[in-house]
Structures are given as C-alpha cells and as structure tokens.
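Q: Convert this sequence to structure tokens.
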Amino acid sequence: MSQLPAEGTRVRVWVNLHNAKRGLPQWSVGDPKTGKVLCNVHSVTLEDAEPKVSEATYRRIHRLGRRKVYARIEGRIAPSGRGLELGLVEIHLNPWRGMCFTLPDGTEYRGSEVAHFPQGAPFFMAGGAR
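A:
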C-alpha cells in the first residue's frame, strides 16, 4: 500500500482484522467518500475525530456470528505527537457488548479533539472527548 496521506487530509481509520493477527500494520486508513483503503499503518493520529457506525453491519455480525468491520473513526490526519498532552483515555469497541465505541466508564464515545491509534494495541486512545 502507499504511504499515509498529508496532514489535514480527511480519512477514516479502522482496525484491519487480518493484519492485526499477523503482526502487520493493523490500522487501515481509507477515503471517507470512496471507502477505498489508502494505506495500512502501525500508528496514526486524527484531529476532530468522530465515530461512524453501520447498524446494518452490526446486525449482520450477530446474525452470522462472525467478526466484521462495522465501525470507523473519521477525522483529519494530525501532526505526529499531537494530542499527547490531552490525557488520552482508551476507547474500546466490542460488538458482543454493544454497538458503540465506549469510554473507560462504559459511556458512549461520541467524538474527540484527538484520536490516537497506537501500534500493537487492540484499542485507540482519545483526548478532549465530547
């Protein structure tokens, strides 16, 4: 795949379920308009992050009993190191517990100033949550 788009580019990020298992770059970065994957990366940071969840795909997961990507985070590519001063918290997604991304206290994640997708973690981190 090609390299990460330029800072300020609007993208969607999601975990690549196949790559994550094999130790390859686990975060897929895609175009929000076409849905095409632009690149796979080990880590990336977004500004003005907001969740995008497909209810239809979520229902399909439960009908088939198989994991699928049904949720993504949309935002703009941020400069490296941006947001680390905001006191980032882990954001998780478990389709067997609920449809939405959740904060550590179990409340729904609705977006944040910054979302950081770290290397090797099964979650992403957000700062300045809304």
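The chain has one domain: 10-129.
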